[in-house]
């Protein structure tokens, strides 16, 4: 027992590996949010008129929401209220000149990405992963652009897409997550600064994993990125996303919106490893991760799959969902959420079955340690027309230590009598007999926990692309080893 | 607008009602009634915006101006109530007509020494001491509008007190019969069951209507289970398809107790069955077993909140539903494991069969603040197994009968857990009647 307590202590005192700050000159606008801020952001990005109008519409709606109801209250997390006037809504590394190639990117920024483990240069050459890195609010570089362009794939920053592909943006932006959707999505629609845009033309199978890396660097900036992925009929794409932030005493807000659109026979696979700064061991600082992610299976036989590993953030609040509109479409959600120290997570998914013979699978694994509170909140809705719909849900929670909590709040609404749905959930701690078995075979407590936890998460890790799976496993064992009581 | 009028209506009624009961020697209860009424007027009727009422709209209840029942006596013969009793069951029977105790129809079996079974109205008037410790101490009128309304207006019901070390061989049947006449009425049945240490007893609560008509029965039953006691409670809802019923069962379980709650919901237009046990003592066991079967436009809402407040308790909650016609079923189950409730073992399951155009909203929840626990829940929704039907048909059984057999088997799982044979037999016949009538209804379409 004493050795366990010791390992807990070493773990708790462990520092956040990505907590460095990069000193670079940034071009920020003053704190605060009003219509002028919106004009300023829009002007800084040279946006066309329609974009500005859309932002203003969202801002006005947000202001109304804030006045009438404020932030959503139903969520099972606690945090002091956010002062939206104390946030810098735009911060970009000061551009020295127009960037032509990677070599011209500020070497400091490149070094930062190297520290994060994504050497853009190297990746370009070796791993074949195309990376779009978003640093604070601006997309710094997109690798492999030319190679992808040959196949007709557009992979660029969102701002670039607004300028170069306005027709696609106007057609699809807000079609999955309307600007009125929820408090934070509305805020994002008003002030979003950058993000990634991805378009896969008909019948194309994207030859490499596309990837974005987000990092919040400057102090008291919020990051509001927006991602839009469109998969034309018959196309396939796999997309990865990773996030980190430096250590700050103050909480930082991250409110992103991700929209996926899959047309006939298209497949989109979206994987996230979220490792934002979770705050120190007393729960001070850290990122508020309030994200709206949603995919729309618009076409027949389309397929959207979400995989997420959530280990960071002081508060995680996200429900990647699927609207299964096309007949025979498939939605999947695989999630591992870990809360340690004072972290709180309220995460899950929404599966809305509209089309016939639509199918969805939900596998959610929650791990709570320290004072962590982990909530699964999921909704499966089978509408009247969704004849033959099928859902399978499994959500398991693992408790480590006696001060944490695990909660499960599923909502199941079935309006079509031909639907079949199953839901099962369990909450346990690591069994004493499991531990005994491992230790009796000479496996140390730490290794045994790591073994059991990775076994617990296996079903989800299996869904991750290779490189991510390795990283996810490592992340988990770093965050968890020895924390058993 | 309309809502406030209705609320005013209740407040007005309460003023009149309070004056009457204050004279009846019930003055001691007035502060509680007053507090409950104030809470009700603050809370108002719940709306689907309240998380606990997300899938159930009580608008039909809120907008109907219900009257308190008048004292007009209803003459009934024992023959008329016979369909609502259990053939072959020796039991004490307390009959309440329109919420009022009927001494002529009630009959008590010889009871062991010290056991008290009486009408609550009588006890309210004469025996303050035995009520005051428990009455309105458990059912939460601070947060639940319907419980608040009941607490303010409670008038009659059944009070059972079982002294230490007593085993009641024969069940006690509380039979609530309503005959709606004239304007829609509201009744507030209130039962208090107190079992001291080392007791054993079975209570059956039936709700039925003698004829069709709109009325609202808003009942609350508080059960106190003393150390080492074993109690079983049955709730049988078979009211008319126009009746509204909200029933709240609040159980306080002491150390090493064993409590079983069986519910069978067959009738009613809008039924809300609240079951809220608190496992307050160590080493207790709890079983909740519920079967709900809806047809037509019935709305059957099952709300359950199990609080594990002490270590080493086991609980099982098994809810099964068959929803036919255009009926809607709701299951809201919540297990809360408090910080100190280590070694909790809780299992919850909700299985639903949808027929015709039936709908179900299911919300099984786990809220866990302790670590050394085993908690699971499961929910399924589906149809009759086509392979099962095929199997039966390949053995020469026609399709209709095959479906009936499978339906009966699905419901039978819940019924089999009921230990008192005459009650189980009676419910089995009600269920098979339900299945065959459903078939007739469908055929006539």
Describe the structure.
- The complex is a heterodimer of chains A (485) and B (445).
- Chain A is α/β, with parallel strands linked by helices and 485 residues long.
- Helix content of chain A is 26%, strand content 34%.
- Chain A has helices spanning 2-13, 35-44, 49-68, 107-115, 120-125, 145-150, 158-164, 166-172, 183-191, 432-440, 445-456, 458-461, 466-480, and strands at 26-28, 91-93, 130-135, 138-142, 154-157, 196-200, 210-215, 226-231, 236-244, 251-254, 257-262, 267-274, 286-297, 303-310, 315-318, 321-324, 330-339, 344-347, 350-353, 359-369, 373-382, 390-400, 405-414, 420-429.
- In chain A, a hairpin with a 2-residue loop joins strand 3 and strand 4.
- By secondary structure, chain B is of the alpha/beta class.
- Helices cover 26% and strands 37% of the residues of chain B.
- Chain B is built from 10 helices and 20 strands.
- Chain B has helices at 2-23, 30-43, 59-63, 78-81, 120-126, 128-132, 145-153, 386-394, 399-415, 421-444; strands at 92-97, 100-101, 116-119, 157-162, 172-178, 185-187, 190-195, 200-209, 215-225, 230-238, 244-253, 258-265, 270-279, 285-294, 299-308, 314-323, 328-337, 344-354, 359-368, 373-382.
- Chain B is globular, with a radius of gyration of 21 Å.
- The interface between A and B is medium-sized, with 33 and 36 residues.
- Strand 24 (420-429) of chain A pairs antiparallel with strand 20 of chain B.
């Amino acid at each position: 027992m004493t050795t366990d307590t010791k390992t807990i202590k070493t773990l708790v005192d462990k520092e956040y590996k990505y907590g460095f700050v990069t000193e670079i000159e940034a071009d920020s606008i003053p704190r605060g949010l009003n219509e002028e801020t919106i004009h300023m952001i829009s002007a800084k990005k040279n946006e066309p008129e329609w974009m500005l109008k859309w932002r203003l519409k969202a801002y006005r709606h947000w202001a109304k929401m804030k006045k009438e109801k404020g932030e959503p209250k139903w969520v099972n997390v606690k945090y002091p209220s956010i002062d939206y006037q104390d946030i810098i809504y735009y911060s970009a590394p000061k551009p020295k000149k127009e960037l032509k190639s990677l070599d011209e990117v500020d070497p400091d920024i490149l070094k930062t990405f190297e520290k994060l483990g994504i050497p853009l240069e190297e990746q370009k050459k070796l791993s074949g992963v195309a990376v779009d890195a978003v640093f604070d609010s601006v997309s710094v570089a997109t690798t492999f652009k030319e190679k992808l362009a040959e196949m007709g794939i557009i992979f660029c920053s969102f701002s670039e897409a607004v300028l170069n592909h306005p027709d696609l943006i106007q057609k699809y932006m807000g079609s999955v997550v309307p600007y009125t959707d929820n408090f934070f999505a509305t805020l994002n629609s008003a002030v979003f600064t950058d993000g990634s845009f991805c378009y896969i033309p008909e019948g194309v199978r994207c030859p490499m994993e596309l990837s974005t890396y987000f990092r919040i660097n400057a102090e008291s900036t919020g990051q509001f990125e927006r991602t839009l992925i469109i998969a034309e009929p018959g196309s396939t794409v796999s997309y990865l996303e990773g996030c980190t932030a430096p250590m700050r005493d103050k909480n930082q807000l991250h409110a992103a919106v991700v929209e996926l659109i899959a047309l006939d026979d298209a497949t989109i696979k979206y994987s996230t490893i979220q490792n934002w700064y979770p705050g120190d061991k007393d729960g001070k600082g850290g990122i508020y991760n309030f994200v709206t992610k949603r995919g729309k299976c618009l076409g027949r036989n389309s397929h959207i799959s979400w995989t997420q590993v959530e280990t960071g953030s002081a508060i995680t609040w996200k429900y990647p969902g699927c609207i299964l509109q096309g007949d025979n479409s498939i939605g999947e959600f695989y999630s591992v959420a870990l809360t340690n120290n004072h972290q709180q997570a309220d995460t899950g998914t929404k599966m809305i079955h509209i089309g016939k013979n639509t199918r969805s699978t939900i596998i959610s694994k929650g791990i709570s340690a320290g004072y962590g509170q982990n909530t699964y909140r999921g909704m499966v809705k089978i509408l009247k027309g969704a004849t033959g719909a099928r859902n399978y849900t499994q959500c398991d929670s693992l408790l480590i230590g006696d001060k944490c909590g695990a909660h499960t709040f599923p909502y199941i609404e079935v309006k079509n009598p031909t639907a079949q749905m199953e839901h099962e959930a369990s909450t346990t701690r690591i069994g004493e007999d499991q531990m005994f078995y491992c230790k009796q075979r000479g496996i140390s407590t730490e290794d045994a926990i790591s073994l059991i936890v990775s076994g617990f998460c296996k079903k989800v890790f299996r869904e991750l692309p290779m490189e991510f799976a390795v990283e996810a496993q490592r992340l988990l064992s770093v965050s968890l080893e020895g924390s058993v009581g | 607008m309309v809502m406030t009028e209705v609320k005013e209506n209740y407040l007005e009624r309460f003023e009149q009602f309070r004056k009457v009961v204050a004279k009846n020697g019930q003055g001691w209860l007035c502060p509680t009634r007053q507090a409950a009424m104030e809470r009700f007027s603050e809370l108002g009727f719940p709306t689907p915006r309240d998380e606990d009422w997300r899938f159930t709209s009580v608008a039909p209840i809120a907008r109907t101006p219900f009257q308190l029942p008048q004292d007009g006596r209803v003459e009934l013969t024992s023959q008329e109530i016979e369909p609502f009793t259990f053939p072959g069951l020796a039991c004490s029977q307390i009959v309440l007509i329109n919420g009022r105790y009927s001494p002529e129809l009630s009959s008590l079996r010889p009871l062991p020494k010290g056991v008290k079974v009486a009408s609550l109205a009588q006890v309210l008037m004469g025996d303050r001491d035995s009520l005051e410790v428990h009455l309105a101490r458990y059912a939460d009128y601070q947060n639940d509008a319907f419980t608040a309304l009941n607490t303010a207006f409670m008038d009659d019901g059944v009070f059972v007190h079982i002294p230490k070390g007593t085993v009641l061989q024969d069940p006690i049947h509380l039979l609530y019969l309503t005959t709606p006449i004239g304007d829609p009425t509201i009744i507030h049945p209130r039962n208090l069951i107190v079992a001291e240490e080392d007791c054993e007893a079975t209570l059956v609560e039936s709700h039925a209507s003698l004829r069709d008509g709109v009325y609202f029965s808003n009942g609350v039953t508080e059960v106190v289970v003393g150390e080492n006691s074993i109690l079983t409670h049955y709730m049988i809802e078979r009211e008319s398809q126009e009746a509204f019923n909200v029933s709240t069962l609040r159980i306080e379980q002491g150390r090493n107790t064993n409590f079983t709650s069986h519910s069978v919901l067959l009738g009613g237009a809008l039924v809300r069955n609240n079951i809220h046990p608190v496992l307050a003592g160590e080493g207790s066991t709890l079983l909740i077993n519920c079967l709900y079967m809806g047809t037509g436009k019935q709305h059957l809402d099952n709300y359950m909140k199990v609080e594990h407040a002490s270590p080493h308790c086991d609980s099982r909650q098994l809810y099964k539903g068959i929803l036919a016609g255009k009926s809607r079923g709701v299951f809201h189950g919540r297990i809360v494991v408090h910080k100190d409730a280590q070694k909790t073992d809780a299992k919850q399951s909700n299985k639903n069969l949808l027929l015709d155009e039936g709908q179900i909203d299911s919300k099984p929840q786990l809220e866990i603040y302790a670590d050394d626990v085993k908690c699971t829940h499961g929910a399924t929704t589906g149809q009759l197994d086509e392979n099962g039907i095929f199997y039966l048909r390949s053995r020469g059984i026609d399709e209709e009968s095959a479906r009936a057999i499978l339906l009966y088997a699905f419901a039978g799982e819940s019924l089999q857990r009921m230990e008192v044979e005459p009650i189980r037999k009676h419910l089995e016949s009600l269920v098979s009647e339900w299945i065959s009538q459903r078939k007739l209804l469908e055929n006539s379409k």
